[in-house]
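The freezer alarm interrupted the setup, so I double-checked each line after restarting. Inputs confirmed:
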Amino acid sequence: MEGRPGDPVALVLLRSPGGLPGAAAAVAGRLERHLPEPGAAERAASALAEAGFEVGPVVGISFSIAGPPELFRARLGIDPVPSAGGAWTAAGGAEVPGGELPAALAGDVEAVVFEEPVELLDGE
Amino acid sequence: MATKPSGGRGTGSSGRGRKPAEQPDGDFPARIFAIASPESLGGLSMFTPGLVPGAETVGLHVSDDEAVHRAVQALSDAGFEVLQANQLMVNFAGTREQFEASFGAHLFTEERSVFKPGGLVEEATFIDNADTEVPGLIETAGTGFEGILDGVALEEPYYLHAVDVLPPTVDYYHLNVPDDVSVLLNAQRPHRSGVTGKDVKVAMVDTGFQTHPFFTEHGYRVEPTTLGPGTANPGVDENGHGTGESANIFATAPDVTLYPVKCATATGALVNVTAAFNAAVALGPDIITNSWGSSQPNGPLSAANQALAAAVAAAVAGGITVVFSAGNGGWGFPGQHPDVISVGGVDRQRNGQLRASDYTSGFASNVYPGRRVPDVSGLVGMRPRAMNIMLPLPAGCAIDVGNGGGSFPNGDETATNDGWAAFSGTSAAAPQIAGVCALIRQACKRLSPAAIRDVLQTTAVDVTTGTNHPNFGHAAVVGPDLATGHGLVDAHRAVLIAKLRCRLVGPVLPALPIQPLIPFTPVQPIQPLLPFKPPVLPIQPLLPFRPPVLPVQPLIPFRPPIINPFLNPIGPIPPVVIREGGQDADGVPLTAEDVAEIERFVIESPEPPEL
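Predicted 3D structure, all chains:
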């Protein structure tokens, strides 16, 4: 199955030995210890691509996945629901911990999160 | 009482000959639209040759209700679709065959030049009648409609007002692109010396980009829009923000190549911005400019924002200069991220004086202790709506409509479908400064993102009056402050210092050769959202940035606001001959003190020389 415009999009946050970086460590000079272990991103991305998600590029600690709502439900156990402004969230909250994901992903994925819309910074 | 037309002159009769004999029939649409004039009370057809209906004479063409009713009935009986009727006219539609059978007309198609949206001169198909001299007119004399209709006019194709390459004239002080923005940021000097952003790639994560004659006329280079996840229509910018802000980039760097990345839905909401930012990183740009954000007054960051922060950090660690707006009254994030160039706003008044914009954010970050926002400033207007820079955008887009009409400062006094709107905010400032970063990048590819930021800060014009957004209320003072950071960016001096430092720093160790954490192997049926560019991502290992080989310091952080040449005479800059590695022609090395002294000349001179 392939994603279409308007389909849910989520970020896959990869697990690392250092955990999520928090604000202080998510900077260029200190990010290294929060990067995923070698192979983790490949495993997670490949598994999700095989499941039918569109997989975006990996930058830092995350990559995006997109697909129809039924794909999220069937393969990840996540129930996407429409949110404000054309965005999506999940029925149980915007952040789904890795422990709630299928076992094949739980070891490599810290969480799946849905992004909230942001604002343009023009003259309004 | 309805009168059924008795039929026309028949399709077998020939026309009066306006249609050339060899004219092909052409392709007729399934529905041809027309306007009929019911028999008028004044007895004068509105289609009378030479007549120009006006407010004073239109009464002659008005019909009574019975005449309108008879016209509607007759057209309906003939099989036409009546769309709308009033006492002046009846709009209706039908096929070519219906028109020719009912009115005995001889229709033909003809391609004629028209102005289409975007200022494009192209051909459009007109439908005409060969039997009359007046274009598009069908006479009813001798047909079953005689005495019912004064005449029939075939509709012509109409288009939205052609967007003008030039901005509209409005009666209030504002800035135009590219010239005003370029001059006020002192970018024209480097442009004249060939530093224009050539060969520099700038990605812009925004609402997309849509063609506009302003861009084509100037010859600006814009690559096809990359769609961020969840977005559609790469050729359309429904909001107009991205298109307008693009003009700010080209104002300071006319020769960059722009890579728009769309992260807006059709409603204008910015969604999945981290995914879109990642898509921008994957394009391998030199610079990413971002005029968006959320307000994050305190930590901790959400998981999604940690991912965004990490993506920004990884991009900067990989050598990409990331520029963000500081915000318009909010605690801009990622505008407060320590690795970005955070851009605030300075208002240039009609009298030439500079002051801090009261529309823009400036604060000491609570999320990142020690981080002061902004770093530097671009050009921004004042409250209430900062309608300060006239920018090109798609005609009738959300901003065109939202800002159009009304009186300044609550409306921009332009039409709501003219393809121009006045707006700014730190949304405008960030792309302006991204353009200056492109100039610096062209002048010296070896400077790291942090070094580029330092160049901007070192050479900015200090702004000492005004107060930033009332949510913060920080005053601009002598020296760095939370109102404007280090002040208004000065592109000329920045490029000069970049050139100078470029001679002094060795080849920068590839900041972070961005190597894939994983060689990405697409697994069927994967269809990446974007063309996958494995060398860009992900990043490992992260290395701390290496400072320039020669510590170029101390720098003179700020010019005095006023230089009195009598008290502090500044003579001509002595010629400097510098060789790679900091050696002059005779092999005498430049010292750090030498460099500081040269920089002082460059920064303090009212007219810095070319190097």
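Quick read of the result. The first strand of chain B starts at residue 32 and ends at 38.
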